[in-house]
């Protein structure tokens, strides 16, 4: 059985609606951001709340099987409605859905990166209407040199797909001729893939194309690893060499960092 979300929980249960003609599975995911508002509740009495408030209300209504009889069709008949529903879209006439396919338990810090289809496939593989998944992430692929990091990141681009790299909260150091950090090629591959050839700082296309036909961008940790920053996608961006140098040495680098936190949604201040 599912549990209602409470502040501080690391995992949440996401409701998933079955496939219908012309539509695949649809899950209640934060398409409008965690602070955006969402329509949910009875068809005859819709509520509007921020995502986690809406999610917890849907969960509670499902657990308690909350329902009510409403007079519909201008009073022509009474209809029993169930509250554990959500509007799949921003409009008042968007489809009203319920957890007809089931529920999937996922990590709270991953829900903004998940897709409806992933949750649907997880339920298809399960023999139950309730399942928990841990495999939406990609384990670290650690590298001891810049050359190895670039090579492995290139090889991982296709393999990584939509999975989110776990990254490293506290990267280890290695010693060559000088001390350096062991970095995760999966983080590099993911960030470069999201950037799709454009600098996430200035927005310009990469300055040149590499021998392998890929756009050249560099991956920068917004909070430097040497200052305790994590080697994760929430602390990494793909940028052109010019912006990279400015972030390291520019007089306005602090202002640039603040703009990045506002511009790139996945970044989390550390």
From the structure above, extract its key features.
270 residues, two-stranded antiparallel ribbon, 24% strand, elongated, 6 helices, alpha+beta
How would you describe this structure to a colleague?
β7 (86-87) and β8 form a beta hairpin. The longest helix is centred in the middle third of the chain and has 15 residues, at 146-160. With 270 residues, the chain is of the alpha+beta class. The strands form 8 sheets. A 4-stranded mixed sheet has the order 2-1-9-10, sandwiched between helices. The radius of gyration is 22 Å and the shape is elongated. The chain has helices at residues 51-63, 116-125, 146-160, 185-195, 241-249, 253-263; strands at residues 11-17, 26-27, 37-41, 46-50, 67-72, 77-82, 86-87, 96-97, 102-107, 130-132, 137-138, 142-143, 164-165, 173-175, 179-181, 183-184, 218-221, 236-239. The mean pLDDT is 89. α3 (146-160) crosses α4 (185-195) and α5 crosses α6.
Topology (elements, then pairings):
Elements: E1 11-17, E2 26-27, E3 37-41, E4 46-50, H1 51-63, E5 67-72, E6 77-82, E7 86-87, E8 96-97, E9 102-107, H2 116-125, E10 130-132, E11 137-138, E12 142-143, H3 146-160, E13 164-165, E14 173-175, E15 179-181, E16 183-184, H4 185-195, E17 218-221, E18 236-239, H5 241-249, H6 253-263
Parallel strand pairs: 9-10, 11-13
Antiparallel strand pairs: 1-2, 1-9, 3-4, 5-6, 7-8, 12-16, 14-15, 17-18
Helix pairs in contact: 3-4, 5-6
């Amino acid at each position: 059985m599912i549990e209602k979300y409470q502040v501080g929980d690391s995992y949440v249960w996401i409701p998933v609606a079955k496939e219908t003609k012309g539509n695949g599975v649809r899950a209640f995911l934060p398409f409008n951001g965690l602070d955006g508002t969402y329509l949910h509740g009875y068809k005859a009495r819709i509520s509007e709340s921020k995502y986690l408030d809406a999610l917890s209300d849907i969960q509670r209504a499902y657990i308690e099987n909350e329902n009510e009889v409403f007079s519909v069709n201008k009073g022509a008949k009474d209809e029993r409605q169930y509250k554990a529903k959500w509007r799949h879209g921003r409009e008042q006439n968007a489809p009203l859905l319920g957890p007809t396919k089931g529920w999937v338990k996922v990590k709270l810090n991953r829900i903004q990166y998940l897709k409806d289809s992933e949750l649907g496939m997880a339920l298809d593989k399960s023999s139950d209407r309730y399942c928990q998944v841990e495999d939406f992430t990609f384990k670290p692929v650690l590298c001891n040199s810049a050359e190895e990091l670039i090579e492995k990141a290139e090889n991982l681009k296709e393999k990584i797909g939509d999975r989110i790299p776990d990254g490293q909260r506290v990267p280890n150091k290695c010693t060559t001729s000088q001390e350096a950090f062991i970095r995760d090629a999966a983080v590099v591959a993911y960030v470069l893939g999201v950037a799709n050839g454009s600098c996430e700082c200035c927005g310009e296309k990469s300055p040149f194309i590499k021998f392998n036909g890929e756009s050249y961008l560099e991956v920068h940790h917004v909070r430097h690893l040497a200052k305790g920053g994590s080697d994760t996608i929430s602390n990494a961006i793909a940028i052109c060499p010019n912006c990279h140098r400015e972030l390291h040495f520019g007089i306005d680098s602090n202002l640039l960092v603040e703009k990045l936190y506002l511009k790139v949604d996945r970044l989390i201040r550390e």
